[in-house]
Amino acid sequence: MKRKFLAFILLVTAGLSLSSCLDSTDNNTNIVYYHDTAITDFSLGKMDKFGKKKDGVSDSLLRGVVDGSTFVFSIDQANHEIYNLDSLPVNTRIAAVLATISAKNSSYIQINYVKQVPVKEGVTTDSLVWYNSTDSIDFTKTKEKAIRVYAQDASAYADYLLAVNVHKEFPDSFVWHSLAHGNAALNSLVGAEKTLVLGNGTVCVLGKNAKDKTVVLTSADGKNWETASTLSSSASQSVATLDGKLFVIEDGKVMTSADAKTWNMVAENQALTQLLGASSKYLYARSADAIYASADGETWTKQAMDNATDSLPTTNISLNAINIASVKNAESLLLLGTRDAAYGDTIAVAWTGTADYSLPIGDNKWNYIEYDKNQAGKLPYLAQLAVTTSSEGLVALGSNGKWYRSLNGGIKWTVDTLMTLPTGFDASKPFSLVRATEKLTAADGTQYDGHFYWLINAGNAWRGRFNKEAWLKQD
Fold first, then answer.
1. Backbone angle region of 22, left / alpha / beta, with phi > 0 → left and psi within -120 to 50 → alpha
2. How many CA within 13 A on the CB side of residue 388?
3. CB 402 within 8 A of CB 395
4. pTM
5. Whole-number Å distance between alpha carbons of 323 and 414
6. Are 232 and 213 a contacting pair, CB within 8 Å?
7. Which of 79, 157, 163, 233 has its CA 20 to 30 A from that of 389?
8. Closest listed residue to residue 468, CA positions, set 392, 410, 393
């Protein structure tokens, strides 16, 4: 390293002498050597990406190419840090990469490697190598302070911390974690389950017990469950959350609870027979002849429908809200479920609605989805059906053990054959599924939203996620 720096000093000194000579004899413009410097730009070239394809017979090695120029590197001049917020894909090879590095005033740049084991006794290995845009860099062997930039006049240098971030997880892989197995409280539920999450992160499961009562179970971690309260038989199919609180409708009474233990009546409206669900700002309930909406559970407003109420679902009900990217302050709603078997339905019943919060609450309308006989992508009629949101639309789990997904708001559904359900899941027994938002903390202390799925079934509780739904997303 000393030899390298000495050579650098000699190079600068020679340049200064040459510039002085040129000026005195040829009257050329002075060459000015600056004493300040900084890295001004950093980008990567194309990189190899390797993976394996399994065909059941042999493993094939697959090679792809990652264009590093599409991944922006941030430069923090105050702390001398260079890093990419958007990580490179899994299995990207960063051991031999061409990099474009620019410095202020065309300063001299070196790459700082971890000192290597000497080739033979008595031979030292220098860790600083002059940067050349045509030489590849092995970022797996660079020091944490990987880049050094010298001022042109050799008066100073600056070291930059470099982080070339590569994802360690495949984005679309789904991982389930078992939190409770054979739990006695969960095992006591024999029918009609519904899982929701309160504002404080408490997970609530409502299900019928052997006495045909709705038991409300709660857990802070998914491992330990306790009975919070007992409600009427119909409550498990007439429940929703709004502003982090539980709401149920029992015998025309609208009840609410912040902890699933203490319940208070906020309204009595004998016309309301069932709570359908909630958007981000409204509760929705049905009566004998209409759908009603409420911002607080106390005042209810009738909404327009383009079909009769006997087309509304009565069991396996889910109501999911999806933001409309092109419309500010509005959500698209999907009400989905099943009706009594006496109707002879072969597919699930679906309604769409819009919650435009810039309009009066009564101006929004519900539309019944009527499928053509031969239309593809219909969700079948199933004894049990749980629907929740995903990062790309909606997902559904049926009593046939299949995982469905929809990318167009629940109009068309396809079976996700790559999705694996957790070991021990029994689709013939009551189950419930919900996607919840949880606060996560990045390594630098930044808090962000991660999304996890809770699956309750046969005395078991699992928590899972698509890897990408728990990554920190940066602009």
1. alpha
2. 20
3. no
4. 0.69
5. 22
6. yes
7. 233
8. 392
